TrEMBL record:
Function: Catalyzes the reversible transfer of the terminal phosphate group between ATP and AMP. Plays an important role in cellular energy homeostasis and in adenine nucleotide metabolism.
Keyword Nucleotide-binding: yes
Organism: Pleodorina starrii
UniProt key word Transport: no
Name assigned to this protein: adenylate kinase
Pfam families: ADK (PF00406), ADK_lid (PF05191)
Amino acid sequence: MPVDLSEVATEDLMKEISHRLDCLKKPEKRVILIGPPGCGKGTQSPRIKYEHCLCHLATGDMLRAAVAAKTPLGLEAKKAMESGALVSDDIVVGLIEEATQQPECAKGFILDGFPRTVVQAKKLDEMLAKRGQSIDKVLNFMVPDQLLVERVTGRWVHPASGRSYHEKFAPPKVAGVDDLTGEPLIKRKDDNADTLKARLGAFHSQTTPVIEHYAAKVVALKADRPQDEVAASIASAMA
C-alpha cells in the first residue's frame, strides 16, 4: 500500500535517503549491551542503532509484542506466564531468531536484556552459528553501585510519556511536574535503595559469568562519565 509522504519535509526525506544509502555501506554488527539498572544503556542505544544501522532488540518488549500479536511463540510465552512459570530460554531465543530475520535487522542488532546467564548465551551462540554468524561486541557499561543508587532513587517519571527527570542531575523546571504537560511526576515503586541493591546483587551474580563467557569480545566502558564521553568510547569500540 503506497505511503503518503506529502506532509514530510523534503529536507527530512533527503536526510533519510542519505542515511539509508550510507547504511548500505556499513558492515554487519551483532552487539550485546550489558549493564545494571541506571547505567545509561537506554541513553546510548539509540545512538548506536542509528550510527550503525542496527535494530534494537529488548527482549521484554519482544515478548509483549509476540503475546499481543498471538504468534505461535507468543502463545507459548503467554501460556507460560499465565501458569506463573518463567518463559523458557528457547522461546526467547526463538523470538530473537525471528526478529533478526526482519529487513530492519539486515545489518545486525543490539541485544539489550539478554543473555542474562551463560546458558542463555550458549543458546544464543548456537542459534547464530547455524546462520554462520556470531556476536561481535559485548559492551559492558560499568558504574559504581553507589552512584547507581543515587541515580535511580532520585529519578522521577512522567507516566504518560515515559519522560524521566532526576532531582539532582536533570531536574524538571518546576519541582514535581512534567516540563511539557505540567502533569504530576511519579516515583516508580522499584526506584528505591533496597529494591535496587537486591537487583544489583542479582545482576552481578548472573552477568559476571556471561562477561567471562564473551571475554574476548567484551569492551569495558566507564559509564559514569558525561554522555558524550561514553558515546565517544562506544564509537571507538565499534570502529
